[in-house]
Amino acid sequence: MAEDSLPTLPRDIHFGDAGVRGIARGVALLARLTGAAYGPHGGRVMLERAFDTPLHATDAERICRDFALDDPLADIGVRLVRELQLRTRRAAGDGGATATLLFDALLRDGLRLLAGGADPRVLAAGLAAAARDADRLLQAQARPVRGAAARRVLALGIAGDPLLGDLLAAAVAAAGRDGVVLVEASRARSSGVVQETGFRLQAGYASPLMATDTLRLQTCLAAPEIFVAL
Fold this sequence. Notes:
Layout: H1 17-36, E1 45-47, E2 55-57, H2 60-65, H3 72-92, H4 96-115, H5 120-141, H6 148-159, H7 162-175
Antiparallel strand pairs: 1-2
């Protein structure tokens, strides 16, 4: 087949400042939406969903989960923010909204400094040094949460509702420092806390060949050695 007869895929190619600023538009838009619902006194963001009811979101994860833009450059910025929030949750468990707002501020000011003639390598080194200084300052100011009253104040700020805040504080107190708190939807008319000691594996089996009792499909092992990777 001749080279000129090969099918070509349409692509948008952007060089220089135009491409970066197009990506920054998507980041700035998500930062503005996240900022509207940021903090315990934040509002609600209503998002349209195709073939579904509108979404009322109050946290950064729900705002960015199915968010997309028609502009391909701006949509790259949206996907960058989504990846940033995912990595933040994996590392810290929370803080996606704060990370989004910081990312937008760093990107906006960084582009302004680059447009003014700043050296990109010096700018990157300065950002790394500032991040280390900020981390040391936060570690020095951090205080552990002790006591039921402090846990309740923190839970109220997260839940935004007195009843849910009390339940969350009770769950954290029951789980302890090394425990895990899971919030799940229920069909019951009231909310509550269920405490489980240890852990429970998900029901099911990988293969029926592992069953020692083939009639009831059960596996009974005496003094097994079990390795659990979390």
